Amino acid sequence: MANTKTLVVNENDIHLTFIDSGAPAKTPYVTIFAVHGMCFTGLIFKKVSKIFYDKGFRFVAVNRRNFGGSSPYTPEELKELTGGDDEKKNAWLRLRGQEFGLFIAKFIQQNNLPPITPDGKSGGAVILGWSAGASLAIATLSIVDTLPQDARGLLSAHIRAFIGQEPAPLALGLPTPPKNWAPLRETSIPEELRFQAFAHWITSYFEHGDFSKRDLDSLEYVLASPLRPPSIYNMTKAETDEMLQLDQAATSDLPFLFNLANPLKAAFRKVCFDPATKELLPKMSIAFMTGTMPPAFGPAGLWAVEREQKEAGTNHIQLKVIPGANHFMHWDDPEKSVEAYLDCIKL
């Protein structure tokens, strides 16, 4: 159903690979561009891709740079990410957003994707950013005004929604909870095993306290629940061999998250609260979602967005909680996930 393809996005020969469900039988249709998180490539979305296609949507899961055959970062780019000053870090994030923005614009043009219909009930595109992928999605939406005029016009006519699925506060440039924990930084775990431990931990289910209290101390940061096995146990060896890239977390994702807090926060606030973004992308709705059983960063991220929205004096961002879902609900519970995504899009 889905074929891996490659699209060159700019004159520097930067290319992104992707899987594409293809156009459904009926048109106009909505296209969903999904961006994966740490360690797992865009193939993690293959189950929801099929369901969306069967429902008359087009689903495109894009591999970020350094993943799944997309262009690796150059040594110079990694050096700027880890050692550059604030100006260079802002420029670094802007370039990544421009690359993905040009990918979307070129994909729209090459595939003649239908724009949002006058009644708003079909057509257009949704950007779904899962986990660390939400950072790239937000970076992209924050730089639409810097794209060439034709690309800017395409995104303005097509983007109808952004969905942030369980980004950690850090992925939005917001403060990390004091009790935050992850195997990646646990020195008692042998260094060569930390990323393997992370893959088991992040795919687990966690039992947290009462969500209604918005209490960070009520979250379980370390111990997984025995109620349901980690999602990685529902993957075959062939599937993990195909879509699990543990080494890229250390190479690019962790430096990205820990060094770009200020640029990420500025991008997040520009996308969510700047009237200029609303003017440029007038049809775009915004939603953030979390399950009730992911690692603690899932609900912590949602509550951080909720606080930001309250401080901004607005309530236009939809905040959605999915009972019983973990960080890999699109793998373990794809039907439930599609329902949640559709509710966020509000067709």
UniProtKB/TrEMBL annotation:
AB hydrolase-1 domain ranges (all copies): 34-339
Residues that span the membrane, as ranges: none
Keyword Cell membrane listed: no
Gene3D superfamilies with a match to the protein in the record: alpha/beta hydrolase (3.40.50.1820)
Pfam entry (one): Abhydrolase_6
Record keywords: Hydrolase
Superkingdom of origin: Eukaryota
GO molecular function: hydrolase activity
The protein's name: Alpha/Beta hydrolase protein
